[in-house]
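Table S2 (continued). Query chain:
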Amino acid sequence: MKTYKHSLGQVAPIGLLIAGLLMTACQTSTTQASSTTGSAQTAAIPVGQVSQNAAPTPLPTRAVATTTSIAADGSLSLTKSLVNVSFDTSGKVTAIYVTPGQSVKKGDVLAEVDTTTLNTAIKEAQQSLELQKAQIAKSLAPAKQTDIDNAKAALNSAYASYNALKAGPSDSTMEQALRNLNQAKNSLYSSQLGRDQTCGLKPGYSSDEDWRKALGDPECKQADMGVQSAEMRVTAANQSYIDAQAPTSQTDLTSSWANVVQAQTSLATLQSGVSDQQKAIYDLQIKQAETKVERAQSALLSAKLLSPCDCVVQSVPFSLGATASSGSPISLLDLSEITFQTTNLNERDVVNMKAGLPASIRLKAFTNTFTGTVDAVLPLSSGTLSTVALYTVILSVDKANADLRPGMTGQAEISITK
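Corresponding output:
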């Protein structure tokens, strides 16, 4: 360090000399300011005028920003994968309106299948709905007096049957059953006599061989069939006589009482109208029938395959007249959202990346430059190059009505403000 001598003859560093000079200048400035202040106190300055001795207003400091750009290679990529659309149900293809490579708008009809079965299903569902409404309307209508009278008669009959069963078999019932049995036996005896005379047989004397020969005659055979029918009537009459003597079982009583309860319910419904609970059931039945109609109509609409987006047709897997199903979809490319993805952004530059940074994108297929914005920075490395990790940055691209296609390559210059 260079040194200099001051007035006292001592040697001092140059830094101390400069400090001394600055202190002297400050003291002089302070003295002048004090003098000016004193003058200002004795003479007021009019409004709107500036004192000649006033200190000048300092100018604001101008901030200077430095902009740095980071360049990275990459290519265009689709945000969404292939969009596959297919028919909900199988059917014969009756129309195809698109071909691979064709651009379509959202809602455009791509293809249609035969609707014969679907139209039939709609008609059946609608008829079922109308029938359900008619039946419910009839049930909700006020009961007629004749219907009430018939319901009362049915209830009385059900009560009478139940009481008869509960009382058990009566003497008159058993006598009638016995009378029927005896009549059946007499009828059988008469039929047997008639058969023997027709066949020329003598009971107790004719052999089995005589019977076989006699039955070969048609008249004899007809007479024998009459005897068999009479025997069956005797068997039935005998069982009825046995049943007439048997006590009533608990099963028969339960069944008979169920008929009484049903008759009571029918009469009460006619007299008081349909309950709120039953009305709720009717409403549910109507809704179920309406749902079937809606499903049938929806199935008919699905016979037309509609595009879900503004897309480009990639493939049509079926032909006219073939059977299309959910396993044979039309594939579409959605080009509405296309991005630029970097391939060689290194780890030293990725730390400066963040969403929202502006970028300029140059593609080899175009002479103009596209604007873009950083959308995301993928956290995982996409690989390494010479021991340096590489990362992928995704940028949105302003297409500017250009025919951008997935796979096009180029370079993005991302601006970083420091």
